[in-house]
Write a structure and sequence with these properties.
Blueprint (H helix, E strand, L loop, with lengths): L1 H14 L5 H4 L28 H10 L5 H14 L2 H5 L2 H10 L15 H17 L3 H5 L1 H13 L5 H5 L2 H19 L3 H5 L2 H7 L7 E5 L9 H5 L20 H5 L5 E5 L1
Antiparallel strand pairs: 1-2
Helix pairs in contact: 3-4, 3-7, 6-11, 7-13, 9-11
Length: about 260
């Protein structure tokens, strides 16, 4: 678990460490922005080196063009490790892990809500982006509000950006606050219910080269894996669960060593 935290911190720094933004302001728009990270990380963040794949996906959908590069990125990563990137290198997922550590009333999320992220992927990032030719998921994304919208407005010294702040900005902040509040009581609330990137990678969990395997003969159904899982997945019931982010916490906690990872 310490290794995972270390990787999460390093990944967050690598993706968001454009130090000149602290002195010169603005957003990095150099050659690295042509590349996408494999997870959710807003292009508009002043510290971001890379682009967000959901922004790229919606850009091409809006242009009525097939997103070969983004589709290839998702397909390659998904076929190799499934949804593992969500568990190890996603800054917004890491942020939710920290939020859940806050002492509060904890709640369980009914499994049916896990399928809503597909509605967001197809409906908001797909159909609506196609009809309006605008990246509507980006316009609502809480990660964008946290690492781009708020910092850019607070750092605005000219007043130009603050003059543009209106109902849409406040709506985005309200969505972020809602996600934060729910994430304090529910494990990775956004990842499980709304994240379109997670929705895409979850499709590959059953088919990826690297995946988890549960030895049914050793498993005693103690539910230790579900209790420690940041997504509240009972991997002993379904080893290819759509919400499994392959963080390996369950592998380490299993008392009978029934859970292992394998290369197929």
């Amino acid at each position: 678990m310490k290794l995972k935290r270390t990787v999460q911190i390093i990944a967050t720094i690598i993706q968001n460490s454009y130090i000149p933004a602290f002195f010169a302001g603005g957003i990095y728009q150099g050659v690295l922005k042509r590349a996408c990270t494999p997870i959710l990380n807003c292009w508009g963040c002043p510290l971001a080196w890379y682009s967000c794949p959901m922004g790229g996906l919606q850009h091409f959908i809006g242009l009525r063009l097939f997103p070969f590069y983004v589709a290839g990125l998702f397909g390659t990563v998904g076929m190799v490790v499934g949804r593992m990137t969500c568990g190890w290198i996603c800054p917004f997922g890491f942020f939710q892990d920290l939020l859940y550590k806050i002492k509060s009333f904890k709640m369980k999320l009914p499994k049916v809500f896990s399928y809503f992220k597909y509605v967001v992927l197809v409906g908001v990032a797909g159909v609506i982006a196609y009809i309006t030719a605008e990246p509507w998921f980006c316009k609502l994304c809480p990660d964008g509000a946290l690492i781009a919208g708020i910092p850019l407005v607070l750092a605005d010294t000219t007043g130009d950006l603050r003059a543009l702040v209106g109902w849409h900005y406040y709506m985005k902040i309200a969505i972020l606050l809602g996600i934060i509040l729910f994430s304090i009581s529910i494990k990775r609330f956004f990842c499980r219910t709304f994240c379109p990137v997670g929705a895409i990678y979850s499709i590959f969990n059953r088919f990826s080269v690297w995946r988890l395997k549960v030895d049914k003969d050793k498993c005693i159904a103690c539910e230790s894996c579900q209790m420690v899982c940041p997504m509240h997945v009972g991997i002993y019931r379904h080893q290819h669960d759509i919400d499994c982010i392959r963080c390996l916490d369950c592998v380490k906690i299993c008392p009978t060593k029934a859970i292992k990872h394998e290369v197929r």
